[in-house]
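Narrative progress, year one. The postdoctoral researcher (J.K.) led the effort to move from monomer predictions toward full complexes, under supervision of the PI. The following entry was the first complex the group processed end to end, covering 1191 residues in total.
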Amino acid sequence: MTPNSAPGNPSSRLLRGPWVFQIPLVFGCFLVVFLYLWLRIQPAGEYYSQGVVFFLNGGFFHRFLTYPGGLTDYGAAFLAQLNSSSWLGALVFTGLGALLFLVARRLCRGMTGCDGPLICLAPILVLLAWRGRYDGQVLTATLALLLALGAAGLCATLARRPPWVRWPAWWAVGCLLFYLAGLWPLWLCLCFLGWLGAIRGSTWPNVAGAFLPALLLPVAALGWPLPGKALTPWGTGAPLLWGGLAFLVCPLGFFLLAWFSRRSAVSQGRGPCPENRPLAPAAAGKPNPPAHRAVARPRLAKSPSARPPPVRWWRGAGSRQFLTLGGLLAVWALVWGLLDADRKTLAEIEYRAALKQYEPLLAAAARLKVLPPSVEIRAQWALYHTGRLSQDLFTVSSRGRGNLLPGLELGIEACLPQSQTLLELGQVNEAEHLAQEALELLGDRPDALRLLADVNVLKDRPKAAAVFLRVCSEVPFRGAAAAARLAELERNPRLTGDPEMDLARSRLTTTDLPHDALPGEVMLRQSLDSNPKNQMAFEYLLAHYLLIGDFKRLARHAGQLQDFSYLAVPRHIEEALLLGQKLQGLEFELRGLKIRADTIQRFDRFRNAIDGMAGQGADALSALAPEFGDTFWLYYYSRLAHRPDASN
Amino acid sequence: MHDFKRTGRKASAAWGGGVPVGGRLPPAPGFRQAFRCFLRWLIGAWLVVAPVAQGAVEGESAVVVGRAPTLFPDYAGIVIPPNIAPLNFKVEEPGTRYRAEFHSLKGRAITVTSRNSAIRIPVRAWRELVATNVGDLLWCDISVRDRVGRWNRFTTVTNLIAREEIDRCLVYRLLKPLYSVYVNIGIYQRDLESFSERPVLENRHTQGGCLNCHTFLNHRPDTFAIHTRGSANPQPMLLVISNAVARVDKTLGYLSWHPSGRLLAFSANKFALFYHTKGETRDVFDARSNLGIYRIDSNAVVVPTVLGLPDRNETWPCWSPDGKYLYYCSAPRLPVDQFKQVRYDLMRVAYDIDQDRWGDPEVLLSAEQSGGSAAQPKVSPDNRWVLFCLAKYGNFPIYQPSSDLFVFDLQTRQCRRLSINSEQADSWHCWSANGRWIVFSSKRLDGLFARPYFSYVDRDGQFCKPFVLPQEDPSFYEHYLKTFNVPELVLGPIEVKESALAQALLDPLKSLKPTGETRPPEAGPPSTIVEGEGQKRYQPSLK
């Protein structure tokens, strides 16, 4: 007798069955997953910030054949390329989640006899919450989990076979799973197999015979002690916790479900879960095992069958659906709340930078309280391109380290952003240096390859540029742009006519300054000396003097504003000149340009506010942030005024 | 036959004639049988006609193009070893179909056709053809079919198969153009008779340390040394003697084996990487360097006075094949801001290994004479030639586009620039064991990535047009991001396992701490090095 079967109209059976509730629930859940990923997580940001490397060639593929779990890494790297389009990346992940759900559901029925939709949705929700942290290798873990559950399901279907078929098949599946997906999936599969053995009443030699070869396999393949990479395939720290949770939620959930349903069955004096179904069809020639064999026999002997079971409100079908829905909403709330907004913003900034969308980049940067060096450099670059570097520099640098071109001092993450800036400045050797460092440390990222191609074109090495572009053209879904550029390069080895290349070429340095670490100011002055019309170098130099509070040099260069077609003095320059005049009696000549009256008035207000804080500590300055947070004045008093070489 | 079995009559009876068995006509040949016959006829006809037709098509419509085809890599007009892997190439001519026919005086010709421009020669057929025609010319006729279906035949590409083989294996370091940080570095060996490449040691097995120069005793694969660099001193050397591995806890730089195998000459350098804002980005300054001798037989390090003059930098040691001379480069010690004035002389000093006696240093070619800076002297196996680099300044020629290969004739004391040089850096050269081939690293393809090139050298010291290491994929070098560094020719494959080398570095079973004095220039008093307790003394054995 099939579960929920009842005499009468089949359609009424369907309407009364759990499907009426589960199908819309599950469908709705996955729709929300898709929308959440597409619109809130936005995989395109992940794509540009993480820069997962993938090439469509045999050499790249071959790297993943040499270690357990390599093929899962390869598959995840391929799927990560689909994140270049947010909706496509969302669709892929939702599809993987749907597969996970189906496989988990099948396993759940076999292990517990129940459906447990919430339990079966739990892994994908955990993975989704993890994705919202923008940390670790979620796709790899997803694929690995899918393979693990699939292997467990496959092994469960083989459980009824004779031992001489079952054990070799399980060993083969275990070996294949280990090679494909690594250690954790193998252990998960073993966990399910052990459970299966327990509920089927297998003897311990049977269990050991199935387990031992699989347990010994990692040691044989990887050696003892097991290497760290095998134990932490998705990263260390938080990613490892998330991955562990994603892997454990299914077995734990199934266990709880089986335990609760058993208790429920015992207390109600009936059989196990009404949705009980055998997992696999009976072997030929053998009678169908009774339905209750899927779970352990309830201890009916101890339950007082004479007394009617107590009425509990949560045992009703309607209550269960309500609880399921409520649970799901609670989990969703958790997933929503666990999104790391700062990391999302960082990812978005990289995405905007790649597409050269300066205003959205700045809008995203404005949401961060503290700017890491890479973001500060990107934001300064965006400010330059929107003509606001000397207007709004301190909306950015007041939240950052106050560095324009720090070199390697602030870590490898700042290398690629700086390389882009340096290339545009005309410092092509320095751009090459930092881009190569990034290429070595971060891998063959398309953005680094593209930068190096441009570098080599500017250095009149078109064939070297072609090497980088050919590699880039093997990146799926983004190779077309590189291939087009390669074709153009073959026609025009110097890419003359390309506005960006022509502009960078006009700014190339003409002198050599041998160094082991070139200070930013020296670099900028060299660029300006090589080409006095280099507006980018001029603006960056002014920004540098603002950041270090060098009033004298600022005043000297302020006299050149008209040479660069400025119609008005930029705001921060006005602020610095006024403050320099007050502090050092600075004299300056603006050659017809004037400081605006509202800047002077604002400066008077600031001066009064500062005078009113005489004797108070530096913390009192934070009270001025709402009104003066975007000014040079507050930046100077917060960071520069207390230096030994500053004069107040 | 089918009909025969069914009807008891021959199949031909079914087509008329004869009374059928049982009064029934046999079934006519079915459609299936007829179709099979037609198919067989068609295939046979195609097999016979197609080559003729193709040849006829070519013969009738082939246009002779009065020039040589453009090949990548450029394998035209070269001398090749008889044991080299197939020289796969691309025909860089527009077309829809490509055909290359390789032939010589003897043996069967090889014809390769392709829908794309890549010509991949079958390995076995290549080996047979080349082996059969040692010392003879090898011709290649290339035809390209254009869009209108016309075949265009280019002038024949002619190469020469040398009589002398090249050493079987090439060992090199692969790394990206590195600056101050590195992640992936490895030393690999490539079988020159095939396309097989295997790692000798990759730094992912050695906790990410740097693998530096490798050098072999008399081109033997079972005896070599690898210098490594990590974060902590001393930065050890791996010493392999007759495939037994030991770690030597001594920081050594460039290495050169004495042909007896009893000692290694090494340099102790103080390098500083710096950068330019114009031209080639990277550069190296050697602030202080001296030469020393590591005696393998006694596990001792000595710094002969003659090799460690206080006011000069000595580097790039290289023993002559007869072991009587140590060649090296020497320059006055200058401060870093005068890096462009640093120019090295090409030197040698006589040595008697039995007496352990050194002669006086001899200047073979001074910087004033050459106008440049000498580096990397390598003596030919017949002790006749010294191949070295000459660049504008400094002693790190791979970073100098001006670096060219020169040869010094030890008989005539004449020096000349080789015609095989390019506009880009050419350096890291090595002789083959028989002295007929050299391999060197050259950036001539693109100016950034160094690739290994081979050149044949005749007995008169004439160097033939170089050719790049062949790869299975003809377009390999067009998308390979690593540079080939320190190519060394070895007579056979290295048999020592990578795991043994890695273990020797990280957790050695045999670790040697050399005794004796090492006097780094202007350093403090010599350190006393004592072997640790429980460490067994490594007893080298040389066959």
